[in-house]
Amino acid sequence: MTVSQPIASEGARSKGRVVLLRHGQTAWSLSGQHTGKTDIPLTGEGRDQARKAGERLRQAFPDGFEPEYVYASPLKRAQDTARLAGFDRMTICDDLAEWDYGRAEGRTRQEVSRLAGREWNLWRDGTQALGSDMDGTWQDTLPSGEHVTVRNGPGETLNQVALRAGRLVARLEPLVDQGRQVLLVAHAHILRILTTQWLSLQADDACKFRLDTAHYSVLSQYKGNNVIETWNC
Transmembrane stretches, by residue range (predicted)? Predict the structure, then answer.
């Protein structure tokens, strides 16, 4: 587990915070398959991770989160993580959906590179670099035996994901100014991209932030600036 130290003493911090919680483990987070719109479930380990994340959050935030400030992705792996962590009441937020990986969906980076005939990197090349010959619908069988339908199409560009993350940041900043504690339960890439928008960085800087399954990070304000308070806890 990678944990950064708080950047300021407790007394110097703004009261309001945005807490980012990534969902627990799935079969595809283990295999490295790109998991965007495909609605796959948590593994048994992922469910345990979610419960433990809830325990850590209760220790770090003993006053908890008001239900009206708990937001989750529309995908069930995020909503199940929120419930297992102890947050049964939540608002579903479409802007928290994971990046639509399009033609990379359900495929590993190595598989995409093989199909594309060249080395492919999501952050460098994006979904738009993949041809329509990779479009289609197919079935994948999870280790549990469950079958999921994978749909490959154009997907979203990084800029499109950053735009919706930026919309969400614009909604969050007034809440932090008001001293609210906000919890977002979602996915690795959208939460990392949201962090770049919080910090006014380039969207592709998100690749420099590691966020493990069922780990949380905290965004806040310090001396008038949006900052990272803790990361990957």
Answer: none
